[in-house]
Amino acid sequence: MATATATYTEKTDEQQAITEMVRQFVDNEILPVAEEFDHEDKFPEAIVEQMKELGLFGVTIPEEYGGMGLDLTTYAMIVEELSRGWISISGVVNTHFIGSYLLMKFGSDEQRQEFLPRMATGELRAAFSLSEPEVGSDVQGIKATAKRAGDGAWELSGQKMWVTNGLLSGIVFVLMKTDPKADPPYRGMTCFITEKEPGASENSGEFAGLSIPPKIKKMGYKGVESTELVYDGYRCPPDRILGGEETGLGQGFRQMMDALEVGRVNVAARGVGIAQRALELALRYSQERKAFGKPIAQHQAIQFKLADMATKVEAARLLTMKAARLKDAGERSDLEAGMAKLFASETGKEVVEEAFRIHGGYGYSKEYEVERLYRDAPLLLIGEGTSEIQRMVIGKKLLERNRV
Ligand SMILES: Cc1cc2nc3c(=O)[nH]c(=O)nc-3n(C[C@H](O)[C@H](O)[C@H](O)COP(=O)(O)OP(=O)(O)OC[C@H]3O[C@@H](n4cnc5c(N)ncnc54)[C@H](O)[C@@H]3O)c2cc1C
Question: Would you say the pTM of this structure is higher than 0.90?
Answer without folding.
Answer: yes
